[in-house]
Amino acid sequence: MVLDALDGLARRLGDLRTRRRFEVLVARGMRIGRDVHLPASTWIDAAHCYLISIGDNCRLGEQCLILAHDAQMDEFLDAGRLGRVTLHPSCQIGARTCIMAGVDIGPRTIVAPNSVVTRTLPPDTVCGGNPARVLATLDEYLAARRTELEGLPQFDAESFRRMSGTPEGRAALAAALSVSGGFVADRGGGSERAG
Amino acid sequence: MAEASGPGDRGLPLPGVTDLARRAKGALEAALRRRELERLRERGMQIGEGVLIPPDTIVDLAFCHLISIADSCFFGPEVMLLAHDDLAAPFLRATRIGRIVLHESCHIGARATLLPGIEIGPRTIVGACSVVTESLPPDSVCVGDPARPVSTLARYLDAHRDRLAAAARFPYADYGVVERLSNDDRAALHAALDKGDAYITGGRSEELRGTGGSIRTPTRHHRPIPPEPLPARPGAPEKAEPPRQQDRG
Description:
Radius of gyration of chain A: 20 Å
Largest sheet of chain B: 5 strands, mixed
CATH architecture of the largest domain in chain A: 3 Solenoid
Largest interface: A-B, 36 and 54 residues
Number of helices of chain B: 6
Oligomer: heterodimer
CATH superfamily of the domain at 33-152 in chain B: Hexapeptide repeat proteins
Number of domains of chain A: 2
Largest sheet of chain A: 5 strands, mixed
Radius of gyration of chain B: 21 Å
Strand order of the largest sheet of chain A: 4-9-12-14-15
CATH class of the largest domain in chain A: Mainly Beta
Number of helices of chain A: 5
Order of helices and strands of chain B: HEEEEEEHEEEEEEEEEHEHHEH
CATH architecture of the domain at 33-152 in chain B: 3 Solenoid
Shape of chain A: globular
CATH class of the domain at 33-152 in chain B: Mainly Beta
CATH topology of the domain at 33-152 in chain B: UDP N-Acetylglucosamine Acyltransferase, domain 1
Strand content of chain A: 15-25%
């Protein structure tokens, strides 16, 4: 119990530090829109944060990295390149994605996890890879997901939460999901937000 | 969200105290970092002079004596250096180990992974998020997973020289440190990026003079190559360079 309390305290302190960190970045010129999901584990180019802009409703996975400069030539040329990073509204960036200086993403672009974004990515597409390229249009991707959704079991968020809480519920879930998985209906919101 | 209010950040009501606390924190972090590098050297890792190796670099501690980093090397954030590979260990009952040798002035991009048994450089640039599985030739630019040479250093620098000739330039002393930037400074940088490329110039020179830049390992014997002087650009809309801080001692 003591450990749980300490853990809770540490977590709350961590949350405060994260909020303060984003406040400092915004005070220094970074733009973070409304309803943005920006995890604490994101690496942000703090020295050039005024070049980074994240639009409304963007969501980033854990441990993304956003660079707004490239100084690989600095030792030889005494000059380091700056580049703006603009995430237009409603971009969904997968975990561990690295975004390099001078790119525009979206709006409504999905970037697959572990991608390396070196060039601008067009709106309404699904992109991925190292370097990230267009893999599909958003419509194609969503059509495929919708077809998948029809064939798989679905749970509304509330009953999923209830089932996850008890051993019997979890066993029922495991039985229903088999190997292919299923879907939990999203009511929108609910996850932690920055900004 | 907090409104941007000039270069200073919101802090304690006494600006002197905030500044002092920040400086003390910086000094403590630098001292801890120096000690950390000392410990790696005691364990047998070779780290040259003028090396920029940030605290978030992930070093294979148990095998760090197999890693050698020559003078003036540069690491981006969260680079991983692995000197052993035990993926087959349960089946082979043996762990593969290999040296990682970085020659002078190698530049390793953000989140690159260096695997055992490789030699890089000298003067090789490795792109961000690359995975280096094999040795990379000197004076080259390498990217990808697995990392392969995509250009020579000369061609890469020429391309940047061309871009630099047409780009807006901002001296490091005025524009390099985010805490000192006013709203107008930031607007100037954005205006330049609207038109084309923008470069921060003179950062390396300041670093070599010891007047600014990132913290590198001290240079006592090593003489770093000075960067080449930039060709003058006619009619450059630059701020007048402020008088340089005098070198004391």
